[in-house]
Predict the 3D structure of the following.
Amino acid sequence: MGNRYGQTWSDEIKELVRGAAGGFLFGVPLIYTMEVWWIGSSVSPPLLLLTLAATAVVVFLMTRTAGFRRTRSTDVIDAAIDTVEAIAIGLVSAALMLVLLRRITFDTALSEMLGKTIFESVPFALGVTLANQFLDDTDSEKQDEPEDNLNETLTDIGVTLVGALIIAFNIAPTAEVPTLAIAISWPWLLLVMATSLLLSYTIVFGACLRNQDKRRQQRGLFQDPLSETIMSYLVSLCAATLMLCFFHQLNFSDPWALWLRYTLLLGLPASIGGAAGRLAI
Amino acid sequence: MTNPKRSQQTSQKRSRAEWISLSISLIVLSTTIGLILFLWVKERQQAPPHLLVTTTESVRQQTDQFYVPFSVTNDGDRTAESVQIKAELIIGQRIVATGEQEFAFVSSGEVRKGAFVFDRDPSQGSVVIRVTGYKLP
């Protein structure tokens, strides 16, 4: 099914993934802000409705100029439909991240669950709406011929490091990483690793985003999508460790398990920063 | 300002895939709004926080210290903020040690756990653990 009307299933999934990728780029740094968890935990239902309504208005206005879809007009009805979808993607993405980081568990009260999810979903929804504006691949056809392999690899490592450092620099000095580390068990940390890799891959290769065709054409050391994703993740982990040491969150006297735990947790936003860095070139 | 790429395809019909993603989005959004309205209605009949401290787990000794586990449950309907817990170790009708803790939030129905650590053996006397206060968010 699919070709009979506007979009095929594959196109639709790509657009939703592009929207979600934009959402994660904007939303994940705010997930590492405990004040938002607290505010979300105690906010009253009318304020939650107001937050949803305000988000809808902003997303609606932004959808008329940006949005995450590339195949329809931006008339009022389409913009309203895209707004509903952007907010839904934001809510689902934020809820998944809160579950992954154990901010929502089976013990969490419904009011707290809703409050955290709605507050955290705001930047996700805005990110979904901005997906085309920042991540569109309009210019990718005009890219120059690929440079030599070593240069491309070094450039990728460099920009990944810069992107990861910028995000890690903002989160490493705060108390969020130690707080999250307390609540997360080792199996959940494996999930955090898998999510970091999946998001990094999706943002750079999986969502038809900027320069993707050029990236897929690249050959040589760490230029295959899978190996580039793994290499970028390792670089992001290095950036995370460096920032944790720089801000004295980790000392040489700390046990190795603590190093690993903190690094993997900060590695999640750092790998998204690294992916954003690679999109920029 | 409109995106030129998008306006090229104004006449396109919405596909089945798009209708399904819209339907799922509407379900997510309406469920969220429904749950908020449910909480709003429920909030009007909400009882204030009712915080209960229990010490069902046994005291454990590690090196020279004694760990007294406890849990705080909010049986009320409203969330309590900055919940202060105080423990007093009483031996021979005299308070020989005290400890204080704070939980940032205890939501309705939530159970928070912790432990007080004393240098002296609580089995020689008694430990009184109680909630000393909270704030309403």
User: Anything to note?
Assistant: The radius of gyration of chain A is 19 Å. The CA atoms of residues 177 and 256 of chain A lie 16 Å apart. Chain A touches chain B through 52 residues (CB under 8 Å). Chain A is about 75% helix and 0% strand.
